[in-house]
Specification:
A hairpin with a 5-residue loop joins strand 1 and strand 2. The protein has a two-stranded antiparallel ribbon with strand order 1-2. The protein has a two-stranded antiparallel ribbon with strand order 3-4. The relative contact order is 0.15. It is built from five helices and four strands, in the order E-E-H-H-H-E-H-H-E. GO terms for molecular function: ATP binding; corrinoid adenosyltransferase activity.
C-alpha cells in the first residue's frame, strides 16, 4: 500500500529523481522520459473518460490502471535483478497485451474497412482518443529508444504498440462506428 503523507520532498530540486530501485538519475534521462510520457498518456485517458460511458469507460479505466503498471515497470531498471529484489517488481504481462488485442478485434468487427486515412476529430470522445493515440505513440517511441540503451520488458513495448492501435479503433467506435469519421482528402486545399 502506498502512503503519501507529504507531497513535496525537495529531493528533486537539483534536477534528479529516484527510480523504483532507489537509483538517482537526471530528470531528463531516457527512462524518466519514457515513464513520464506514459503518465502523460494516462492523463489523456482521464480526459477521454469524461466523454465515455458503459463498456468504453470500463475499458479506459482498465487501461489507466495498466498505464500505472507500465510506469511502475519502466521506473524499475535492471530486470535481470528482479529475482533478487526484496519486493518483486511489477512488470507488464503478456495477458495485458492479449486483452488489448481481443478488445481491438471485437471493436474492429463492428467497423467497415477504411478507404482513407482519418483526421483526428468527429465526436469529442473520438478527438480525445486520437490524442491518447498520439501520446501513447510517443511513449512507445521513447520506450523503444530506451530499450536500445538499457533493458526494458518486451511486454511493455508490445503493450504500448497495441495501445495506440486500441485508441485508433476505439476512436472509430466513438464516431458512430466509423460513420462519422473525418476522412482525409489528399490535396483538397491546393
Amino acid at each position: 500500500m502506498v502512503v503519501l503523507n507529504k507531497i513535496y520532498t525537495k529531493t528533486g530540486d537539483a534536477g534528479e529523481t529516484a527510480l523504483g530501485n532507489g537509483t538517482r538519475v537526471a530528470k531528463h534521462s531516457s527512462r524518466v522520459n519514457a515513464y513520464g510520457t506514459v503518465d502523460e498518456a494516462n492523463a489523456t485517458v482521464g480526459l477521454a473518460r469524461q466523454h465515455a460511458e458503459g463498456d468504453m469507460d470500463a475499458q479506459l479505466a482498465m487501461i489507466q490502471n495498466d498505464l500505472f503498471d507500465l510506469g511502475a515497470d519502466l521506473c524499475r531498471p535492471d530486470m535481470e535483478k528482479d529475482a533478487d529484489a526484496e519486493y518483486p517488481p511489477l512488470r507488464m504481462a503478456a495477458a495485458q497485451v492479449s486483452r488489448l488485442e481481443s478488445e481491438i478485434d471485437a471493436m474492429n468487427a463492428a467497423l467497415e474497412p477504411l478507404r482513407s486515412f482519418i483526421l483526428p476529430g468527429g465526436s469529442a470522445l473520438a478527438a480525445q482518443l486520437h490524442l491518447c493515440r498520439t501520446v501513447s505513440r510517443r511513449a512507445e517511441r521513447l520506450t523503444v529508444e530506451l530499450a536500445t540503451m538499457e533493458s526494458v520488458n518486451p511486454d511493455a513495448v508490445k503493450y504500448l504498440n497495441r495501445l495506440s492501435d486500441w485508441f485508433f479503433v476505439a476512436s472509430r467506435i466513438a464516431n458512430n462506428d466509423g460513420k462519422d469519421d473525418v476522412l482525409w482528402v489528399p490535396g483538397a486545399n491546393r
